[in-house]
Design brief:
Elements: E1 15-16, H1 18-25, H2 29-39, E2 42-43, E3 51-53, H3 54-61, H4 65-72, H5 79-88
Antiparallel strand pairs: 1-3, 2-3
Length: 96
């Protein structure tokens, strides 16, 4: 058993790659990879490219751990989560 957080489920319309995450956050690849591991905001199968949640990477950037945990639990409609989806221009079907 590990202490790493459960991964966030990444839907296709919110997925970005490592290069885009670096551009969005103005952070380097090492930082983004660290956040993927520490916060569970992205991942990949062996040999596959890294998939990252755009709203979650902004949550990590701004230290909004409460929003990350709401998203991790599957709540994409909570105002604290919607804020980050709106920021990256993602409209979730759950938003109605």
């Amino acid at each position: 058993m590990t202490d790493t957080p459960w991964p966030i489920i990444i839907k296709p319309d919110e997925e970005i790659n490592l290069k885009a995450a670096c551009h969005l956050t103005r952070k380097n690849e090492k930082t983004i990879r660290g956040w993927c591991k520490d916060y569970g905001i992205g991942g990949a199968l062996p040999g596959a490219p890294l998939r990252i949640s755009a709203p979650a990477v902004l949550m990590a950037l701004h230290g909004d751990i409460v929003a990350l945990e709401l998203l991790r639990s599957g709540d994409r409609t909570h105002p604290r989560v919607r804020r980050w989806f709106d920021e990256v221009g993602v409209i979730s079907p759950e938003a109605g």
